[in-house]
Fold:
Amino acid sequence: MSGVRILRCAALLALGLSTFTATANAWEPTGDVELLVTVGPGTSPDQLARQLQSMWRLQGTVKNNVVVTNKPGGGGAVGLGYLNNSHAGSGNNLAVAGASMVSNKLAGRSPIGCDEITPVGHVFAEYIGIAVHPDSPIKNAKDFLDRLKADPQSLSIGIATSRGNSNHQAIALAAKQYGIDVSKLKTVVFQSGSEARTAVMGKHIDVVPASVGSLVKQVEAGQLRLLAVSSPDRMPGSVSDVPTWKEMGLDAVVSNWRGLIGPKGMPPEAVAYWEGVLEKTMQDPEFQKSAEVSLQTAKLMKHDEFAAYCKKEEANLNLILDDMGIGN
Structure:
């Protein structure tokens, strides 16, 4: 065999070995994958977890058995504590996280925030709508803010499920910029969004802020009326006629985002694996259709971008929570 042929064979062998090694070393989960939800069954985070569980099975994207586990309590502290204390460094354990993880940490309800977990991927944003009873004397968003400015205690605002969360922020940010003392707002805390919506429909409270997707059926049925939305631009479909806070000159873009996180110390190769899984999942037409129907703005942010976004949210939120009298 000539020297040139020997060199070519050696090069091909080396290439084959390197390809085999890379494939052999590609990380994949072993055994069951646990997808943790820090609130109860039937909630928005739980619905996302079960949607992902179903899609991964149908797509074959994740070959392992995926188990959804609900561990509610303590403003997410129970579930996130379990994630870190029982599974630190694991690549097989994920949790559905949202904006409440940040607000609960800053409000002192949970010790776990952006720095204590491994951000994996932002999945979608749920923007907040401000709703009243159809017969409410509040005519529009400006009238709403004018009434609060004249007397912050004049209107009762139903917040689910904790003060300082995204729903609360969607009103407080706009109100603060309108010159209202947001620490004096009259807030009533409900255990679920459905309870808060029912209270407005029954005229027991005046206003409810909630994700637009959770309000749209009642709006379409004439049971609620939207005053404003916290999205950067007008939203599509049956709520396209509802103005944004930005249209009133108020920089109050607030989303109750959803994403996947891992425990502290999740290996980088596991993060990369789950980034790839999310990328395939969010490209699926069924996922995109589901997000569109639910008025969710699907946007994948991988680990680095998601981590930076989480920290920025934390910094911005810290300021408004202090104004609301909620910060640590």
Notes: The chain has eleven helices and eleven strands. Residues 145 and 178 are 7 Å apart (CA to CA).
